[in-house]
Amino acid sequence: MTDQELYAAISPMAEQVLQIERFDNTVTMMSTPSWDSLTHIQLLCGVERQFGIEIDGDDAFRLTSAEKLVKYLQSKINQ
Amino acid sequence: MNSLSLLPHQQSERPLDLPYRTFLDLLRAKAELAPARDFLIFPESGRTYTYEAFHALAVATADWLNAHIVPGGTISILFRNAPEFLAIFFGAVSHGLTVVPINPDLAAPEIRFIVENSNSTAVFYDPDLSAKLKTLETEMIPGVIFIPVSDVDDLPKVDVKAVEARLPRVDPTMPASIIYTSGTTGFPKGVVLSHMNFLVDGKGMADWFQFTPETRSLCILPLFHNNGLVVSLTTTLSAGGSVVMVDPKASLRSFWTLVERYHATFTSVMPSILAAILAFGFEGKPGYLKGIICGGQLLPLSLAEKFEARFGVPIFEGFGSTEATSYSSFNPVQVNKRKLGSVGLVMPISDMKVVDDQDVEVPDGVEGELCIRGGNVAIGYHNLPGLQALRFRGGWYHSGDFGLRDKDGFYYFRGRKDDLIVKGGEKIYPAEIENVLSQHPNISESAAIGVDDPILGQEICAFVNLKDNGASSEAQLLSYCGKSLARFKQPKRIVIINRLDDMPELPKGPTKKILHRELRDYYERRLANSEDPEGLKWVLGSQGAG
User: Domain coordinates of chain A in residue numbers?
Assistant: First the structure.
């Protein structure tokens, strides 16, 4: 999948969880007040379900932006 | 240090233990003692600073600030738990500046209030916040400059000794920071803390918990709050240990991984974090973790017992407030001497007492207001002389927290005298929410209360009376709040009382003051069980509830 395809796949769930209008490569945890500790868990759970992967604790705390999340997904999918 | 000019509420019966005068003195001493020892570890970015490296960075930052800001002024900073926060904080206080850390999640009007109220002349911020701060930058009062800082490692290297020789002399009783906390009027109040406050409290806790250079603290609370800045950072610095810094918003799910991977020996949390770890069923091994420091909101005894039984890590509950820098009392570090449910014994840095309405100390076992004095007690409030006189009177800081002391000297926290809401450790006065709601054109009056929440301790429910019953929905009102209030202050639920059968108007006392307690009773009786915590269920569906 390309980055664009990944954004398209994640966006509906991410926008619902974070209650934002658009989940794109400009979205970061820092710039999005609704991306808090609980919605971070929701977001990662949603991604795990959607892609059938498991995000371990070593990675979960590093996924602090949309860009990092998509990059991470690329690496998991291409493994 | 006995020559220090202490305020009446900073004078304790116990001797002041202040081996270093300022943050920079403390940092320099530790850097000289163990230059190659790791001080700050940032797992997300992979950056690690030894004591020597961070000392050099702090001095280089002080030198850089010298080009922008005149010593003696105040600056605001908006960063997450990143090297930029700490470099600018240490650089600024070494340069004789007062630093105002601001929660980056605050709404733009809230940030503006703090910047203006603190008389900040500059705002240093994470570039990720540019969009939010852009409007402030153009509207802000003249004279305030906004400076984005993306990487302090890019600062030019300096001759540390030469720069230090040029830095202004900083007195330990000078303000180092103004920390803003919620205020009863709805506007945040600035608590002014000196270098002495931070260093006394930090050393007091380091001694209490027997921290050593081998101590490794895991900091998962934000540095813009004193719990992160003092309990995790200053305390560990006092002992010459190391601190693992993680973004608080991203750390919860990785809690046990971080504990294990970085060999954390201590961490500091809010009770809501313990509740979340249990509720989400996050499993892990404590590894080297000797204890968890916990406070900031009421810790339910059942939660503490359940957490300890499940993970085998002792929880050390304490009592404190921003006005006392952070903690003043703790349970003993000897696990079997703790009293679960108590906030412990007063630390040797302070005196504590319990008083009645006439400020007379009450006997052990009798409930009253908890008062503190000592070297960790703040200078006072920023530009609030009335409140200063009220809360710092008779040589004691009157906390507004109620509790008692038992015959063994252990203190117990029972609750607040006022209607303060504590949500996930964040303190929010109802007036902050009510002030925003009252500006809505269709709301005639409103009241906000704290209601029980299984994870956060409390959530916010607002009751509103509409001028035109049909003209506004709950969703519209919630959306309206989102424009002016930080997310953590936004009500989870808004109840339109025009649509209630059994409460035609907000309950009021003889002076027409709204009775928040009656609203809380009403909520418990009629509305609590009708709430559906969808967000939590959504997560628990895949994680399994503990």
Answer: 3-77
CATH of B8-405, one of 3.40.50.880, 3.30.70.2190, 3.40.50.12780, 3.10.180.10: 3.40.50.12780
Cβ contact A40–B253 (<8 Å): yes
Of A29, A42, A48, the CB nearest to B250: A29
From chain B, the residues in CB contact with A42 under 8 A are 535, 538-539
A66 and chain B: CB distance < 8 Å anywhere?
Answer: no
Q: What is the CATH number of domain A3-77?
A: 1.10.1200.10
State the CATH class of domain B421-543.
alpha beta
pTM: 0.89
- Chain A nearest CA to B169, separation (Å): 36
Distance (Å, whole) CA B256 – CA B7:
43
Distance of alpha carbon B391 from alpha carbon B369, whole angstroms? 11
Q: What is the spatial distance between Cα B32 and Cα B25, in angstroms, rounded to a whole number?
A: 11
A and B: number of Cβ contacts within 8 A: 88
**CA–CA separation, A69 and B457 (whole Å):** 30
Residue A6 amino acid letter: L
* Domain boundaries of chain B, sorted by first residue: 8-405, 421-543
Reported ipTM: the value is: 0.94
| pLDDT tens, position by position, B133-163 | 887 777 766 778 999 999 899 899 999 999 9
The two tokens of residue B52 are 């020597």
pLDDT digits (tens, 9 = 90+) for B85-128: 999 999 999 999 999 999 999 988 899 999 999 999 999 999 99
